[in-house]
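Now for today's protein.

===
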Amino acid sequence: MSAAVAGVPGIGKTTMVQKIVYDWATGKIYQQFQFVFSFKFRDLNSINFIINLKELILHHYPYFGNILGEIWKHTEGLLFIFDGLDEFNDKINFVDCRRDTESQCTDPEFKCKVSDIVYSLIQHKLLPGCSVLVTTRPTTLHLLEKAEISVWAEILGFVGDERKEYFNRHFEDQTVAAAVFKHVKENEILYTMSYNPSYCWILALALGPFFTQRVRDPQRVPKTITQLYSYYIYNILKNHGREIENPRDVLLRVGQMAFRGVSDRKIVFTDGDLIKFNLQPSQFLSGFLMELLEREDSARSVVYTFPHLTIQEFVAAVAELLNPHPGDILKFLTEAHNTTDGRFEVFLRFVAGLSNPMTARGLEEFLGPFPHQTTCRVIDWVKEEVKRQSGNTWSEAGKRSLLNTLHYLFESQNRGLAQAALGSVETLSFDRMTLTPIDCAVLSHVIGLCDTIKHLDLAVCHIQSEGIQRLGPGLHKCQELRLGGNELGDSRVKLVSAALRNPECKIQKLGLMGVGLTDSGAEDLVSALSTNPSLSELDLGSNSLTDGSIPALRRLILTLPSQKDIGLEHNQFSETGEMELRSLQEHRPGLREWI
């Protein structure tokens, strides 16, 4: 069996892998497996020569010696874990059927490329019967679409009280923990961000001193991810910036190394990398880079990495804006934005965010001013990119590109820029694209800046409870709203009902097909619709409506004169109930019912 687990950066994919291995080793789970072999794709990048599975295992687990031959005989007792497909430099093509005949990697002692070994294990060509688990960011999940994957899963992050529990465990002083959590909960964006454990960590590090020192400046409270990371780096500069003669120059070189790593999908750096960028270990540098022992038996064992990839991406963005010779930055930004594997997504959000003088102000205290001409060019680029991408949502790549540009817009926190960029936007279509709570918060922000959205299509976007809560305040601005295929249930449909009750509601077409609506929810929805004279089309197909909802539907059909279409197919009406619903058409000439 092969399984794939996806999750956004920092959501806990690697932590999950570590927990699986630990719980297996301590006998808590998966006792059907005799051996678990765990690999990180970023470690596999260093193997640029042909190798066989036996050598690969011994390279990471040398103590297995000569017993692997016996292990191969019981493949059903083997679990292979490959963590971080998005960090792998070699492409694994599951679409090309010629690979089956070209690689011929069916024997654990046959030498081939690492990518062929991984491919053959996932496709059950090598050691058939073993199990394989692959983790990846959603941006590279499409690489596995044609693979022999039988289980698909996504890590959704913290929900409910798990956020509060994180802060309680992070801070020894529970008074500080309570103050930080209260602040986070009162800020919609920060609270939405905190579904992600890595952002919780950054929130705790950045906001902890703020509340420990009992100094509150409402004007400097972070509202965006860029502002949050600015605080994080500001605290490092404040603590270590005076230990070095020119922190701007050093951070510029650190950022250039960080950007090269982002470009090459590299997160582990060596002494050679530091020398290349004229850096040397120091107390200042240790604020950005952690020193790790690569291997106990290695002659040169120390390597360097940023505490998290998002910190590497932020430092890279700072360096890009600090660069006194940016060259053709518009071309650079466009090329980075058009890169389809997602490696520059977060980096570009930070670049856009740092174009706001208020966001960069704290950093400028130690780094000097960001070049004004560069930030102006970034602002112009964001505006033009939003306009260009808004009409390009026919493909998944186009939808993702538009969503990224909206993230740039949000991070910039530039209301004038947003209104200029969104002035011509009439349609936002993200159907069949998974939206995280942060995506929904950004969309809500964007909709809030628009007078009207003619068409908002969020069908089958796997929107969770928190996502629809974030979207709720702006839904009344949409003339055509499609939410079908999301597991909303009655409780979340009430948020749609609240939008319908808004005196300024503009909804004319509403799609709620397959959202888990029951008779109870239908009653509340009909009550809301009775106050909305603008609705002309309503799709309630593929829900759980029974004859119990017919009285409410009768009131809706007979009392809402603007309604022209109503979809009720694939519900749970009896034959008598269907006949009763069809008979209502006699009283409403021109109404089309789909039952």
The mean pLDDT is 88. The CA atoms of residues 320 and 326 lie 7 Å apart. The longest helix spans residues 372-389. The first strand starts at residue 2 and ends at 6.
